[in-house]
Every structure is written in structure tokens, then in C-alpha cells.
Amino acid sequence: MPKMKTHKGTAKRIRVTGSGKLVRKIAGMSHFQAKNTRSRKRRLKGMRAVSGVDQRRMVSLLGIKAPVKESKEGGNDQG
């Protein structure tokens, strides 16, 4: 069976962090910035995590193992 090919369009837009999360750039920052306020431009800077519903599809397009799920329980108990 041949190897799975990576979807190159997705590979250019989605990045995998060291912890295994998928991150993407926020839309709306490539051009037409004159009409946006400073606060909006600040909010749109940086990267955001890919939403949960899209994550499964992105993993299959990238041909990688599924990212690590963050558990809601356990972790930082101080009581």
C-alpha cells in the first residue's frame, strides 16, 4: 500500500505545537487593515488553536497521529 500524501495546502496553514496541539493563523490580517481599529488588529494577531470539530479533519489531511487531548479532570489540584 502506498504512503499517505500530506495535503500541502493544509500543511502551509496549520502547525503542530510541541505538545501536539494544532494551531492556525487568525483570518482577516492579510490586507484591508486601514478600516480596522487598533484593538481589533491587536486581537487578531498571533495564532489560535484549531477548534475541536475541525481537528479530526486536519489530522487526516496532514497525515499525522491524533493530537493529545487535554483532560478536564486531574491536573492542578490545590485543595
What does this structure look like?
The protein has 3 helices and 3 strands. The protein has a 3-stranded antiparallel beta sheet with strand order 1-2-3. Helix content is 30%, strand content 13%. It has a domain of 55 residues: Factor Xa Inhibitor (Irregular), CATH 4.10.410.60. By secondary structure, it is α+β, with helices and mostly antiparallel strands. The radius of gyration is 17 Å and the shape is flat.
Structure summary:
By secondary structure, the chain is an alpha+beta fold. The chain is built from three helices and three strands.
SS-based structural class?
A: alpha+beta
Range of helix content: 25-40%
Bulk shape: flat
Distance between the termini: 53 Å
Average pLDDT number: 83
- SSE sequence, one letter per element: HEEHEH
Our count of helices gives: 3
Low-confidence stretches: none
The first-level CATH class of the domain at 8-62 is given as Few Secondary Structures
The portion of residues forming beta strands comes to 5-15%
Number of strands: 3
CATH architecture type of the domain at 8-62: Irregular
Whole-angstrom Rg: 17 Å
CATH names the topology of the domain at 8-62 as: Factor Xa Inhibitor
Q: Main sheet, how many strands, which sense, barrel?
A: 3 strands, antiparallel
Task: Tell me the strand order in the biggest sheet.
Answer: 1-2-3
